[in-house]
Amino acid sequence: MISPSGTRVTAADGETLPQIGDRMADKSAPPDDGAVREWIGPEAFGRWAKLRNWIDEYYLERAVFIRKHSLSF
After folding, report:
1. Which residues touch 22 (CB under 8 Å, ≥6 apart)?
2. Of 17, 27, 35, 62, which sits most exposed with the smallest number of CB within 10 A?
């Protein structure tokens, strides 16, 4: 949490309290689809899922094409 003065708030035990979105940006444990849906909302999640699927398909097709034609980039 950020106070109005721009500093982080610390708990009584000295640890920094998490900010909104910290969980989504934590690379040690990526959020599951349910957490992302809750964070961005169902409509935006639907668009995100379509985009993610398109990226997966596009890059898979491209990787197969590159291997098939012995191309390198």
Report:
1. none
2. 27
